[in-house]
Amino acid sequence: MLTRVSNIEIIYSLDIQKVLDNHSKLFETPKGLPPIFYHDHVIHLILGSVPPIIGFYKYPYAQNSEIERMVVEMLKVGIIQPS
Q1: Is the dihedral of CA 25, 26, 29, 31 positive or negative?
Q2: CB-based contacts of 72: which residues, under 8 Å, 6+ apart?
Q3: What is the reported pLDDT for 72?
Q4: Cβ contact 74:80 at 8 Å
Q5: What distance in Å separates the CA atoms of residue 56 and residue 40, rounded to the nearest whole number?
Q6: Per-residue pLDDT for 10 more than 80?
Q7: How confident is the model at residue 34 (pLDDT cuts 50, 70, 90)?
Q8: 27-65: string of b/e by CB count within 10 Å (b at 16+)?
């Protein structure tokens, strides 16, 4: 079975293709924010605790334009929101 992802063609065995077809909803591109659940998990903070000091996440400069493109696309679709 032949599947096209972006400009890449991928060949799967029939067993794998059957699983992908049966669960195709899981592999759709998300549209919008996730649904609101009746119970969201909460992280309880300790009173008086100090957050850890962690440096910025660093990535190679060559990836900068791709990361910015992905962020713009996610904003446009509604997966993320500006903060």
Answers
A1: positive
A2: none
A3: 93
A4: yes
A5: 28
A6: no
A7: confident
A8: eeeeeeeeeeeeeeeeeeeeeeeeeeeeeeeeeeeeeee
79 in Cβ contact with 30 (< 8 Å): yes
State which amino acid sits at residue 13.
Answer: S
Tokens for 67, please give them. 């990361």
Token reading at 55: 């440096």
User: What does the alpha-carbon distance between residue 2 and residue 14 come to, in Å, rounded to a whole number?
Assistant: 10
CA dist., res. 18 & res. 16, Å (int) = 5
Dihedral over Cα of 68, 61, 59, 28: its sign: positive
